């Protein structure tokens, strides 16, 4: 039986990450970066596509597992007839080369353990050449080289294009494995002491968590979400990937499988707001600086997403040799949505830079000139149809959310000029644009018969992004049109109380076959909207339910299937966790700082 998405836990080193199953198998790992080719791709195929399992001989899934307190160090335990054993998994912050450390410890009795390592470079397509060297097993293929050693050394043998070992651990005994990647043309990487790496990782993570200012209800869930966000940060640049995986399906067996190992501009405002509200100024500044570098250039060429360091080319292609998660094909690498016109991102960028300024982040030169350039482009472009925040692969439309975000851009620009009269800029021009956009949205994007805003001009479809209207300040929460929109979304877009992105027939919107689950972040938006419109008890109830959707180690994917009771989509999803943090801050304002100014959702269908 193929594991479910929620069966996985995350370990990482702030440059890449691995998924570890309940059975003790590392089934996904891209080296050396989040967006590199995977050397373990069982997640999207089978054992022959690469994995590394350490578990008691003959055992299946673990008895229990958990992260060490306030860290990304994972403990997995098995209770067997012969005794109890624990495997501790971590990826220490790297000096130069990435390492995976796995420490086996006997807790009771004497247990026979098995290690099975199948390295398959280039997403499971290349079987490397294996050799022994100075106490290591070395795998080489093309540019990739992986070195494996154990302390104390255990006997290994090759079979079926894999590396195997069998050993016993008694109570109090430990065996540590270290797997290290480096470019094959370079000398052997320096050895890492696994026990020093464990101690340093715990110390680093716990010191980082100690900086968290949030001290309200569900602090454990908020902290776990912040740790996850930190784990999805590419430390060299400050960029934050949407998820460390590609092609985990929005419908089991379906085709809605996308690569999320990139950085979306749409995340920026809510990410900044959550980091700043929880006390993480340094991370917020790094994210803001990544944003500034990524968007530099012609405003007409602004992309909705970029690579980890701000790369612009993210071509999409398919891996025919991988059958996909539970047969969900195709498996896609790259993301063609990078070429789409999504006008809302201009509002996201300007809102983010405004929030950074208000929060007192260190000023950066030329930021105001950049904002002016973006507004000059948006002055005429906001009237155009676009693909919208859900990245639909159907025809362009006049999406209401895109227009609202154009209003946000003008509104934040006007406010900045009013608060800083020394800045250059035609405040009357942007004020006129703000008023025009607001008037048009209220006339063309609102259905008076149903008392709700709609997904696009002239349509009857609804959109979960409409829930953001009061949070963005477009209309006050007590406006009857806002209340009516929230009620309409609840009535038409919820399934078992959880919110879908848009109409129940997504094929009619984005031209893709199949269905999808409820979007977790959209359900957090509903909780926010309920709270803002005075229905805090209902918001609290929904928040409690959403927190309960996390898996046993506190992680959330992009979507949830309330019928099957399983998580769907790429995992863990940064924006789901940002939604959790933001809603906790909004609901428990007296016990934790409120989040920053509004923003929008994560990418959707591609």
Question: Roughly how many Å apart are the termini?
Answer: 28 Å
- Tell me the Rg in angstroms: 24 Å
- How many beta strands in the DSSP annotation? 28
Average pLDDT, rounded to a whole number, is 93
Share of helical residues: 25-40%
Q: Could you tell me the strand content as a percent range?
A: 15-25%
Low-pLDDT windows of residues: 590-606
- Global shape: globular
Number of helical segments?
Answer: 15
Strand count, sense and barrel status of the largest sheet are: 15 strands, antiparallel
Strand-pairing-aware structural class: alpha+beta
How would you explain this protein's 3D organization?
The chain has 606 residues and is α+β, with helices and mostly antiparallel strands. The strands form 7 sheets. It has a 15-stranded antiparallel beta sheet that branches. A 3-stranded antiparallel beta sheet has the order 26-27-28. Helix 3 packs antiparallel against helix 15 (574-587) and helix 6 packs antiparallel against helix 7. The protein is globular and about 75 Å long. Residues 590-606 have low confidence and may be disordered.
Q: What does this entry show, briefly?
A:
With 606 residues, the chain is α+β, with helices and mostly antiparallel strands. The chain is built from 15 helices and 28 strands.
Keywords:
single chain; 606 residues; alpha+beta; 15-stranded antiparallel β-sheet; three-stranded antiparallel β-sheet; globular; disordered C terminus
Helix/strand layout:
Elements: E1 8-12, E2 17-21, E3 25-30, E4 38-40, E5 51-56, E6 64-67, E7 74-79, E8 83-90, E9 99-118, H1 121-124, E10 129-133, E11 136-141, E12 144-151, E13 156-159, E14 162-170, E15 174-183, H2 194-209, H3 219-231, E16 233-234, E17 239-240, E18 263-264, H4 268-277, H5 281-295, E19 305-306, E20 317-318, E21 332-333, H6 344-358, H7 367-381, H8 400-419, H9 427-444, E22 446-447, E23 452-453, H10 469-472, H11 480-493, E24 494-495, E25 498-499, H12 507-510, E26 518-519, H13 520-532, H14 536-548, E27 559-561, E28 566-568, H15 574-587
Antiparallel strand pairs: 1-2, 2-3, 3-4, 3-5, 5-9, 6-7, 7-8, 8-9, 9-14, 9-15, 10-11, 11-12, 12-15, 13-14, 16-17, 18-19, 20-21, 22-23, 24-25, 26-27, 27-28
Helix pairs in contact: 3-15, 4-5, 4-6, 4-15, 5-6, 6-7, 6-8, 7-8, 8-9, 13-14, 13-15, 14-15
């Amino acid at each position: 039986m193929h594991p479910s998405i929620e069966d996985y836990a995350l370990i990482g080193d702030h440059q890449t990450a691995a998924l570890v199953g309940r059975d003790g198998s590392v089934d996904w790992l891209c080296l050396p970066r989040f967006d590199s080719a995977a050397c373990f791709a069982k997640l999207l195929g089978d054992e022959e596509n690469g994995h590394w399992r350490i578990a008691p001989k003959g055992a299946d899934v673990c008895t229990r597992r958990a992260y060490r307190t306030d860290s990304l160090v994972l403990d997995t335990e098995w209770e067997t007839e012969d005794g109890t054993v624990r495997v501790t998994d971590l990826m220490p912050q790297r000096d130069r080369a990435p390492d995976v450390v796995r420490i086996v410890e006997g807790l009771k009795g004497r247990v026979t353990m098995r290690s099975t390592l199948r390295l398959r470079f280039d997403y499971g397509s290349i079987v490397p050449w294996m050799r022994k060297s100075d106490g290591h097993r070395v795998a080489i293929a093309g540019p990739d080289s992986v070195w494996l050693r154990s302390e104390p050394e255990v006997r290994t043998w090759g079979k079926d294009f894999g590396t195997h070992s069998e050993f016993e651990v008694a109570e109090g005994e430990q065996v540590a494995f270290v797997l290290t990647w480096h470019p094959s043309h370079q000398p052997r990487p320096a050895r890492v002491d696994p026990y020093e790496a464990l101690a340093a990782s715990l110390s680093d993570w716990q010191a980082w968590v100690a900086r968290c200012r949030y001290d309200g209800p569900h602090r454990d869930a908020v902290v776990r979400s912040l740790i996850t966000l930190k784990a999805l940060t590419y430390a060299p640049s400050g960029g934050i990937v949407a998820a460390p995986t590609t092609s985990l399906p929005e419908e089991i067996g379906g085709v809605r499988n996308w690569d999320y190992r990139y950085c979306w501009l749409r995340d920026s405002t809510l990410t900044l707001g959550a980091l700043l509200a929880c006390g993480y100024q340094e991370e917020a500044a790094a994210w803001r600086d990544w944003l500034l570098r990524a968007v530099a250039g012609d405003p007409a060429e602004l992309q909705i997403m970029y690579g980890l360091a701000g790369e612009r080319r993210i071509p999409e292609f398919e891996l025919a040799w991988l059958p996909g998660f539970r047969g969900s094909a195709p498996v896609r690498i790259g993301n063609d949505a990078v070429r789409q016109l999504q006008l809302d991102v201009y509002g996201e960028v300007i809102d983010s830079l405004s929030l950074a300024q208000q929060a007192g982040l260190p000023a950066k030169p030329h930021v105001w000139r950049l904002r002016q350039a973006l507004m000059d482009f948006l002055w005429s472009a906001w009237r155009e149809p676009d693909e919208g925040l859900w990245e639909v692969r159907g025809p362009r439309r006049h999406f209401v959310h895109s227009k609202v975000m154009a209003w946000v851009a003008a509104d934040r620009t006007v406010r900045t000029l009013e608060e800083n009269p020394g800045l250059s800029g035609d405040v009357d021009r942007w004020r006129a644009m703000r008023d025009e956009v607001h008037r048009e949205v209220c006339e063309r994007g609102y259905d008076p018969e149903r008392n709700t805003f709609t997904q696009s001009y002239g349509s009857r479809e609804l959109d979960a992004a409409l829930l953001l209207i009061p949070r963005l300040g477009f209309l006050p929460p007590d406006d009857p049109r806002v209340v009516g929109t929230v009620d309409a979304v609840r009535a038409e877009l919820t399934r078992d109380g959880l919110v879908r992105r848009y109409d129940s027939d997504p094929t009619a919107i984005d031209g893709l076959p199949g269905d999808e689950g409820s979007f977790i972040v959209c359900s957090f938006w509903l909780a926010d909207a309920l709270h803002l419109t005075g229905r805090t008890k209902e918001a609290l109830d929904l928040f409690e339910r959403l927190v309960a959707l996390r898996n046993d180690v506190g992680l959330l994917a992009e979507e949830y299937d309330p019928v099957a009771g399983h998580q769907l989509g790429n995992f863990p999803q940064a924006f789901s966790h940002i939604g959790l943090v933001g809603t906790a801050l909004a609901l428990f304002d007296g016990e934790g700082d409120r989040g920053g100014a509004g923003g929008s959702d994560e990418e959707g269908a591609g």
